[in-house]
Write a structure and sequence with these properties.
This protein has one domain: Rossmann fold. Helices cover 34% and strands 19% of the residues. Helix 2 packs parallel to helix 3. With 181 residues, the protein is of the alpha/beta class.
Length: 181
């Protein structure tokens, strides 16, 4: 075989591939409940999925849930362990912030996080809740979350044409790693 035509990967490339696969295997899995608008049942489905997983023996923790709660959501929530969000004021606005440090300390198998497109206050560890979710996934914790189509940046124009409303908090869909969905 002529020099330079060897198609085998170098030892460095093999090591890079193995390390990438190990990172992928350690990363938590992501499940997203997507709805077109508020009050279509995403939070109920998310909590019900958490309840089913708990009944199958998985360690499930609720880290954020949309308020106000309906009676059916309250009933599901009573069956699950919760780490409450904390409220932080900035610039005359109240923010509900995930207690990411408490989630890391508790380290459940599955973490339920509602309102994926939620903003964090300026100066937070991450500017957006979806970045907090990325950090949770990197810790090997599976995340089940919910988001409205109206909050996905790339869909805002279409949703506004249909509903006449534009969402204030948004997130880009580019971050959703296809391998984790």
């Amino acid at each position: 075989m002529p020099a330079g035509t060897d198609k085998r990967p170098s030892p460095e490339e093999l090591l890079r591939r193995v390390q990438a696969e190990e990172r992928r295997q350690r990363r938590g899995r992501l499940k997203v409940f997507l709805g077109y608008a508020s009050r279509v049942g995403k939070s109920f489905r998310m909590l019900d999925e958490g309840r089913r997983r708990k009944e199958r023996g998985e360690d499930v923790l609720v880290a954020a849930i949309q308020q106000p709660l309906t009676p059916d959501l309250e009933a599901l929530l009573r069956k699950l362990e919760c780490i409450p969000t904390f409220t932080e004021a900035h610039g005359g606005r109240q923010y509900e912030v995930l207690d990411v440090a408490a989630i890391f300390r508790r380290h459940p198998q599955v973490c339920l996080v509602d309102e994926l497109a939620h903003d964090n206050p300026p100066g937070s560890r991450n500017p957006k809740r979806w970045r907090d979710v990325e950090d949770i996934l990197e810790q090997g914790i599976a995340v089940i979350t919910a988001v409205n189509l109206q909050h996905i940046e790339e869909q805002q124009d279409a949703v506004e044409r249909i509903t006449g409303k534009r969402a204030r908090q948004t997130k880009s869909s580019w971050w959703m790693p296809r391998s984790t969905i």
